[in-house]
Write a structure and sequence with these properties.
By secondary structure, the chain is mainly β. It contains no helices and eleven strands. The strands form two sheets. Strands 2, 4, 5, 6, 9, 10 and 11 form a seven-stranded mixed sheet that branches. A four-stranded antiparallel sheet has the order 1-3-8-7, with no helix packed on it. It is elongated, with a radius of gyration of 14 Å. It starts with a strand and ends with a strand. The mean pLDDT is 94.
């Protein structure tokens, strides 16, 4: 299973940014959950948003009404609007994949930096 993230960078407060993550798996695997977490310096990793195999989206409290998660097959994107300095963090793609023999396994991307600053 491979997770390839793209789209991070520097943006001014109030600006927008879109992150994408393409997940490559074996055809027999089942994607249980896919989405994004983030970790700011000195803080714990927190949920941004995820979507499960039934299309149900779970949003983190800090990003509700500003961030929108979407999924197209094995690619998940998050449109981030009205960004604030406190959104500055490393954003990690996350996938929980049912692989069959080993059951469900959690995978993480390498992380992409989002910096919100004027």
């Amino acid at each position: 299973v491979q997770l390839v993230e793209s789209g991070g960078g520097l943006v001014q407060p109030g600006g927008s940014l879109t992150l994408s993550c393409a997940v490559s798996t074996e055809s027999s695997h089942i994607m249980n959950i896919i989405g994004w977490y983030r970790q700011a310096p000195g803080k714990q990793r927190e949920l941004v948003a995820t979507i499960d195999s039934r299309g149900r989206i779970t949003d983190g409290d800090a990003v509700k009404d500003r961030f929108t998660l979407s999924r197209d097959k094995n690619t998940v994107s998050i449109q981030m609007n009205n960004l604030k300095p406190e959104d500055t963090a490393v954003y990690y793609c996350y996938a929980n994949v049912y692989t069959g023999a080993t059951g469900s396994v959690a995978y993480w991307g390498q992380g992409t930096q989002v910096t919100v600053s004027s």
